[in-house]
Amino acid sequence: MRWVRTEVNLDNHVRVPKLDPCMESPDKFVEDYASNLSTTTISKSMPLWDVHLLNVQTSEAQSTCIIRVHHSLGDGISLMSLLLSCTRKASDAEALPSIPTIKRGNPSNNSGGFWQFLLKLWCLALLYWNTIVDIVMSLGTIFFLEDTKTPLKATLPLGTPRKRFVHKTISLDDVKLVKNAMGTTINDVMVAITQAGLSSYLNRKFGDNKKDNQGAEGNASNNLPNNIRLRGALFVNLRSSAGIQAFDDMTRRDSKGRWGNHIGFVLFPFTMAIRDDLLDHVREAKITGDRKKATFEAKFNYCMARFFPKWFTKLMSSFASRTTLCFSNIPGPAEEISYFGHPVSFIALGVYGQPYALVIHVVSYEKKMKIILSADENVISDPHQLCDDLQNSLELMKNAVIARKRADPQLYKHH
């Protein structure tokens, strides 16, 4: 397969179905429409994208634009950059949206003497040791190490079934409140919310199974089996410049934030447990996140996918069959934007075609954070409930932070 130059016929790419404006449930219609798209593919005889304009009012927007793009064209960072280049500030119809700047932490260039040298040497040794351990764990997962069977895990044979796309909006300010109080990153908090929400969801599911099998409610507080192994592929942006970049910058040959697919993944363990203090999930997510930052695992997986694509694809099928989910966090615009004069209410990303029963995307937009689930309907029959559990986890964490601040104002200071 190779790219060839071609002409674009918009009639092949833009779909505007005639809809009944008085339909009974517009939200359900849009959700079903997106779900039905997951059962179809884009013809490789034309550029691999299409646009669907659904002119029906939902609870969140006056209309919905679904842009479907094949992943071979670019990763989430690339596509977000392209989207922003097509939009303008809602406050200024002639101005491009501001690109939020995210700086990666770089080690100090100062020598710092002998002890500083020993510290750097230790960090380097730890980096290579973590990489070796992580690669061995990935290989073990490919060949035999499997996650615990739960109501979230797909079973063999893995296919590409219809996906149900559901999303929930949470407050970015609430996420930052927890982040600042705990001294972590936004990604740590979102991983913690996911961890807590999945724990709550599975606890309910296992509790329902106990009722069915024993005819009694049993332990109402904790129904989770001990030592659940639940891991996910957590995707990492490998560009030297963090965050989204201006589209013109990404398409330059000397760009540090190059266009295309420049992502790797790490095998991330999610702790399934019912905590008395939900902020323990944030602490655990930070520890695991810091550990995963000190490894070349993501770069190793990226190189394998780039230089040995066929072999890597076969191995990834085994990997996906033995893990549970995918997780991705993509930064969006920090201000309200408009698309050809239409104010944008929300941005939601989703994927299909992967053999996972659950893929979780997190996208920020202005003061909102959108959680999007791509769920296999044959495995997860109630993805809306799972979304509610994730939202409720943030609410409980926020309340815990507020309560502790009131009890001891000096304990959690703003960072």
How would you characterize this protein structure?
The chain has 415 residues and is α/β, with parallel strands linked by helices. 39% of the residues lie in helices and 16% in strands. The chain has ten helices and twelve strands. It has helices at 26-37, 76-85, 113-143, 172-182, 186-214, 247-250, 279-293, 297-307, 309-322, 383-407, and strands at 14-15, 49-54, 64-69, 88-89, 163-171, 231-237, 263-269, 325-330, 337-339, 342-343, 358-365, 368-376. A six-stranded mixed β-sheet has the order 5-12-11-8-6-7, sandwiched between helices. A three-stranded mixed β-sheet has the order 1-2-3, with no helix packed on it. Strands 4-9-10 form a three-stranded antiparallel β-sheet, with no helix packed on it. Helix 4 packs across helix 10 (383-407). It is globular and about 60 Å long. It starts with 13 loop residues before the first strand and ends in an 8-residue tail after the last helix. 32% of the residues are buried. The mean pLDDT is 89.
User: Percent helix among the residues?
Assistant: 25-40%
Major β-sheet strand ordering: 5-12-11-8-6-7
Overall pLDDT confidence: 89
Query: Could you state the order of secondary-structure elements as H and E?
Result: EHEEHEHEHHEHEHHHEEEEEH
Structural class: alpha/beta
Tell me the Rg in angstroms: 22 Å
Terminus-to-terminus distance: 50 Å
- Oligomeric form of this entry? single chain
Please state the overall shape, judged from the principal axes of the Cα atoms: globular
Give the number of helices. 10
Q: How much strand content do the residues show? A: 15-25%
Low-pLDDT sequence parts: none
The total strand number stands at: 12
Largest sheet properties: 6 strands, mixed
